[in-house]
Each structure stands twice: as C-alpha cells, then as structure tokens.
Design a protein that fits this description.
By secondary structure, this protein is α+β, with helices and mostly antiparallel strands. The chain is built from 8 helices and 14 strands. Strand 10 (about 115) and strand 11 form a beta hairpin.
Length: about 350
Amino acid sequence: MKKLNLKYYILLSICCLMSFAKATAQVTVESKLDSAGIFIGQRIGLTLEVSAEAGKNVEMPEWDSLQQVVPGLEFVRSEKADTSYMNEGKTMLLSKRYYFTSFDSALYLIPEMDVKVDGKSYLSKKLALKVVTFEVDTLHADSIFGMKTELAPPFDWAEWRLVIIFFIIALLIAALMGYVIYRLKNNKPILRRIRTKKHVAPHKAAMQKIEQIKEEKIWQSEDSKEYYTQLTDTLREYIKERYGFNAMEMTSYEIIQKLQEVNDEQAIGELRELFQTADLVKFAKYSTLINENDRNLVSAIEYINQTKLEEPEEKPQPEVIVVEEKRSKIAKRVLIASIVVAGLVLLGVLGFVGYRIYMLTL
C-alpha cells in the first residue's frame, strides 16, 4: 500500500512540474542588434520579439527621445509593434524596432529589456555594442575639409511653367492697357481704317499703263531705252497675271519659249520681234525710229487684245472702308472702368508671379 502511495506522489509531482514548465514556457523574449559595431554618430537598430499566448496583455519597454539607456548610448526612436499569429491563432508574436546612437567610442553593454505580460516581468538577454571612431590624419591637416555648402536643386521647368504662363498673361494685359490708354489720351478711335485694294483685270491694268505711256509720249523722245523698259515691263506684268508664271524674272527668250506652250505662233510672232528690239535697245544701244516705236506699241496692244481673258462683271468695291468708334461719355467711362479693373487684375497676376518666384528661389 505504501509502495502504491509513493508511485502516486511521484506521478503527481511529475505532472505538477510539467504543468509549471508549460506555464513558464508560454512566454519568450528575444533581442538582437543589426550589427555588432557602428561608427560614431551612426544609428543601430535593435529588434525585440515577444512570443506569448494570444489575448495576453503585453507591455514592451520605451524610452524618451535622446534618453541615455546607458551612459554614452542614446535612444533615438522606436517603431510601432508588428503583431502576427501562429499555431492556428493560439500564439501571438510581437516584433518591435528600436534605434540607438552614440557619440563616444566605447564598448557598451545594453542591459536586459523588461517585457511585462499580464503584469509579470520577462527579461531579454544582454547585448554588446562597440562604437568606433574615425581615424583622423592629424599630420596632413590640408586633407581635412570643412562642411560642404548647400547644393541647389536642379532647375525644373514643370515648377516654373505656371510662372511663365502668368507672366505672359501679365504682358498681354499691360500691352492692351497701354494701347487703350494711348488711344484715349490722343482722342483716337480704337479701330483704325481698313484699306482694300480694288481688283482690276490683268488686261485692263496693262491697257491703263499703255495709255499712260502714250500720253507721256515717251516713244517720241530720244530716250528709247526708257520707253522699251516701260513697255516690256507692262507686258511682263500682264503675262505674269494672265498665265501664272513669273515673267518678271525671266529673259525675253524664256518668255517666248513659255508662251509657245499656250499661244499660237501668230499671236507671239510680233511679240517676239518687240522683245528682240527691246533687248537691242537696252543692252546693245540700238537706235530705233519713231515709226518702229509706233509699230511695237501697236503690237503690244494687239497681243493683249488677242489673249485677254474676259472676267464676269462684279459690283464696284469700295477702295477704303473706315470703321470708327464714336465714343460717348458713357463709353469713355466704361473704358476707364475697364482699364481700372484690368489694372487690378494685372497687379494680382504680378503679385502671384512674384510670390511663386520667391517660393521657388527659397
């Protein structure tokens, strides 16, 4: 009987020990550094992981910014804890990042981190961090440089596009205001005269010039060169308007060759003789007789009459159309008020442009 009771107590003790081990094994705290050493002024990250039963209240340690965890090692900041679940949601794993820095070279021993789970404390292991300094070449002071100046950001057209657009608008408003003020000050209409050139048929324009040559009686003078220059220029202008090729820039031979494509030989026979005589007079100082000049003038008139193209009659067009604004006192007041409003808009646009330039050049 005593032997049976002894076995019972042993079994009960084993069960208690297993239950206690299970209870104590439900919470684990692990901590690790990103690296074993850093340079002075660098930051080092520390990851704290806590595994506990889901639903437990877990409190992880925290320090104030720039608080020294140990003398010479400062706390910088921490991130929000990241929570994940395992074992079908029965176990939760919390992970949190801490950042530290130091400005003194030394070997630091980071103490245990106290984690509370439902008010009970659990400690992490101690960690060692080595902070090393830079090697400074004191023998060569010229190799040590001071702080670099601030670098200007690269020019970005996208940032200045709006400024350029508003600046152009301001210039247009200013130009319009200046024009209206000038016209008002000089009591001139806003709209000017619009001139239109009356269309005259090519053969009519040529005949008018020939009539002018006849009235001036140039062919009767001794200056045959001036006479043939005016006569051939009149024919060249007529041919240009009638057939569409630039006879003004062509030689007499080239004109005749071109006309042979559209005129019969009879129409250009006398015209060829006229151009040949004109070339002799202008370039070879050939002297002509009065009856020869008369015959060439008649040849020019006959050629125009044979080749003219009659155009349909059109209503007479006015040569000058005048559109003027008769401003009353009310119209002047409206214009002045418009100038004032435009001036206010211009000031607003210039203010915006100045503000944008100031902000972009900061």
